[in-house]
Amino acid sequence: NRHLLSTADLRREDALLVLDTAEQMARLSDRAVKKLPTLRGRTVVNLFFEDSTRTRTSFELAAKRLSADVINFSAKGSSVSKGESLKDTALTLEAMGADAVVCRHPASGAPHRLAGWVHGSVLNAGDGTHEHPTQALLDAFTIRRRLGRLDGLAVTIVGDVLHSRVARSNVWLLHTLGAKVTLVAPPTLVPHGVSAWPVDVSYDLDAVLPASDVVMMLRVQQERMSAAFFPTEREYSRRYGLDADRAATLPEHALVMHPGPMVRGMEISSEVADSARSTVVEQVANGVSVRMACLYLLLGGADERDEREVTR
Ligand code: CP
Fold this sequence. Notes:
Elements: H1 12-30, E1 43-48, H2 54-65, E2 69-74, H3 86-95, E3 100-105, H4 110-117, E4 121-127, H5 133-147, E5 154-158, H6 165-176, E6 180-184, E7 199-202, H7 205-208, E8 214-217, H8 233-240, H9 244-247, E9 255-257, H10 270-273, H11 280-300, H12 304-311
Parallel strand pairs: 1-2, 1-3, 3-4, 5-6, 5-8, 6-7, 8-9
Bound molecules: phosphoric acid mono(formamide)ester.
The site of phosphoric acid mono(formamide)ester (CP) has 10 residues, from α2.
């Protein structure tokens, strides 16, 4: 596959190949091997039409660690503000020699459109409420590193599922990798089509936590809903927030995850976010290894010489 657009169409063997390759990348990093020559002479464009802290910087770091040239394009301050379309923006960047385009866009499906216009690989870095495949891959990588497996694990995803591309990508990927996913959300923040998803749905967080191996908290995305639908912070955190008392009902080995950005005091308390069972910071670090693996496999992984360089 030339692109990484979604986890819904990612086969189990391809997902495992990404996780195994990311493991190799992480081991090299642990051994202080900071840079590989694999993508020397290749150009990766970060094409971001929406704000990002983690995804943009970790794709940049991942590409640089593979020796690629990186162009960071942000819609703010570009000719997009003069009316230039996504297609013309992409073709302009391709004319400058982009081998891969990492795209974040507020419109669901934008990276799929892009993939039809450019010759290089397109990596979806989050499109609207649709998917965020590298986030799900780094989450799966983090779970497997901490708990040793994904098969048979009970993963609970809590919060604003309706607007969450992270939740969607995780649902498909975790299902493919054999985990059992339960969604917990206020009824107004459960997507309409959820009955077709391979998940259980609950409205009672307290009932689900004691049987969860992993609990993944989501931010309420107020920027994607009208003010009339904003839940009050107090009411929301009382029913769906993870505080220390609730976290104490989890099994001892259970992990607490959050893709970031977190709103401390709303969906998660500071005490829980900073606790030993929280993987929030680890997820960010693992994101670099996983994105290195994705770029490597899409742009350079088939080459035998590169294989030797990575496994050396
Ligand atoms: N998790 C995530 O996508 O974070 P950013 O929006 O900061 O990239």
